[in-house]
Amino acid sequence: MKKWIRSQFRKKSRVYILPTRMGGYFNGLLFLMFLLAVGYSNNLLLIFTIFLFGFNLIWLIQTHFHLYHLNFDSILIDSGHARSAVHVRINWRNCPDLPVNWSFEIETEDEDFKLAVINNGPEFSSTDLIVARRGLYKWRYLKVSTDRPFGLYRTWIYFPLKQDSIFFPPLLSKIAIDPFCQVISGEGETDYKGPEDFRSLGPYDNVESKKISWKHYARTGDLLIKEGFRPSTSSLELKFNEESYLSNHEQYLSWLATQMVECYRQGIPFSFKFQDKLFPSQSDAFHLKNCLRELSLC
């Protein structure tokens, strides 16, 4: 029933208008002045009241047309974490030739979210969106409202949306990688030609002349260079723990998300085992997004 009622009052291109608090006071004053003018047969007061009423009607029409010709084009919502600001860009096809001072709300079928306006222009508006909980959000309406240009009336319009967004678990303030319930793989060795500890010999490549083993050259007459070793990059293995999840699931998911983001920032490859799924060790943004998506929807 609630969804049906909301849908009835969110018609495309229908502009709604109501007086603001100041507008209510002003209209009440006009009504009182009219009663006094008629009751006391004061023609001067009646003329003045009709004069103000005419201006009031012009202000109402002007406020109504402030949004009447506005055409919505598209909306772009960046991916992000809950409780953190996510950038939103709203594109317009045309805007009225009036001072732009709009406020925005983006709505699902059950919740409304007010957007903090960063910039309004003739072609787009940039805003911030903050949601409190992780998960999938199905956006259905964009509400644009304003009380300009006079502040006596507030007008708003709804634009239908069909867009979904996933918000990841919020990040913890402590961003250091925590080894609890994690396995850091041992450092392996990889062969390379460099100034590290001597390990073996390789053929001279006409480049690394400083690394030539002159002792072997004196014995055999062959030009060989020393090869060394260096530790390979450590990788982190993350495993989804059912017991930790059941004890405090939101805190645990935030902890896992924080570990993943910190690994990505430091360039440390990480793998993630979630129930029957295994995400192999990688360090790119696509891998991070896929792992965070699993946390958001669990």
Main β-sheet, in a few words?
9 strands, mixed
Instruction: Tell me the total number of β-strands.
Output: 16
- Output the number of helix runs: 7
What is the helix fraction of residues, given as a range?
25-40%
* Oligomeric status: single chain
SSE sequence, one letter per element: HEHHEEEEEEEEEEEHEEHHEEH
Number of discrete domains: 3
Category from helices, strands and their pairing: alpha+beta
The parts where pLDDT drops under 50 for at least 5 residues are 185-199
Distance between the termini: 29 Å
Outline: elongated
What is the averaged pLDDT score? 77
Strand content: 25-35%
Radius of gyration: 33 Å
Structure report:
With 298 residues, the protein is of the alpha+beta class. It has three domains: 1-168; 182-186 and 234-297, no CATH class; 198-231, no CATH class. The chain has seven helices and 16 strands. The protein has helices spanning 2-8, 21-39, 43-68, 214-220, 242-247, 249-266, 285-297, and strands at 16-19, 71-77, 80-81, 86-94, 103-107, 112-120, 124-129, 135-146, 153-168, 182-184, 189-192, 200-203, 224-231, 236-239, 270-274, 277-282. β5 (103-107) and β6 form a beta hairpin. α2 runs antiparallel to α3 and α6 (249-266) packs antiparallel against α7. It starts with a helix and ends with a helix.
